[in-house]
Amino acid sequence: MLQINQMFSVQLSLGEQTWESEGSSIKKAQQAVANKALAESTLPKPVQKPPKSNVNNNPGSITPTVELNGLAMKRGEPAIYRPLDPKPFPNYRANYNFRGMYNQSG
After folding, report:
1. Fewest beta carbons within 10 Å, which of 40, 41, 43, 53?
2. Which intervals carry biased composition (Polar residues) (predicted)?
3. CA separation, residue 44 to residues 27, 31, 72, 78 (Å)
């Protein structure tokens, strides 16, 4: 069975800044680019609010994507994620021999 390993590339634009990243899924690529933007952005960071005393509050469960979207929303700017053309893994060689697909009998 041939498994196609595909990398997804996304571009994030926030204000005048742009970042790109890749991942094995769209979600992972978005989280990677959001993490990169949080680390490299020159935009001012919002003031941290004291945590609410909520029993269901789990600060470690916030993904970089959610954190960046919250930051963008507070600034009144959209965080725009754009999927880029998918790229195969570097060592992947496509199999263009499809003869067997047409000779199958049902």
Report:
1. 53
2. 51-62
3. 25, 20, 11, 16
